[in-house]
# Entry
Amino acid sequence: DGSALTGNVGKFLNVYYQNIRNNTNVHTGSTAFVNTGLSITLTPVSASSRFIIMYTSSPHQNTTTNWGQHAVYRDSSRLNISGGVRRDSPNHWTTFTQTTTGVDSPNTTSAITYTVKMNTGSTTGAQWYFHVGSHLSGGDADGAHMAFTIMEIAS
# Structure
């Protein structure tokens, strides 16, 4: 339960949360990374703070999409917190919930912005859906939402 911890090491300092629950479809045909709409700006309490980063979306692949990927950026730098989706068959449509997690240690007390970006991977011209809010209204994606959570912990 954390009651035996001394000092501030390992304790949560801040929790930041963004929830997008609407009928928006977030998609791209670009092989360059583009914004998904998930973005949080924060100022670390300490230069030694660590951040547990999680984001959830409802990706969708249709019969023209082979590959899609997503990643977290700290300001303009891509972090090693990422994921992707590969279609298994040209005859299947797939929508599901996906959560990606990771840890970042920015070593600063200046304001920083974490942003989730996406691209189509190596499939030029295909549309890849990072999030489906209404594409399959009443179906398996009905009521889906995107969420972005960042937890600052003392280290």
User: Anything to note?
Assistant: The first strand starts at residue 12 and ends at 20. Residues 40 and 114 are 5 Å apart (CA to CA). The radius of gyration is 17 Å.
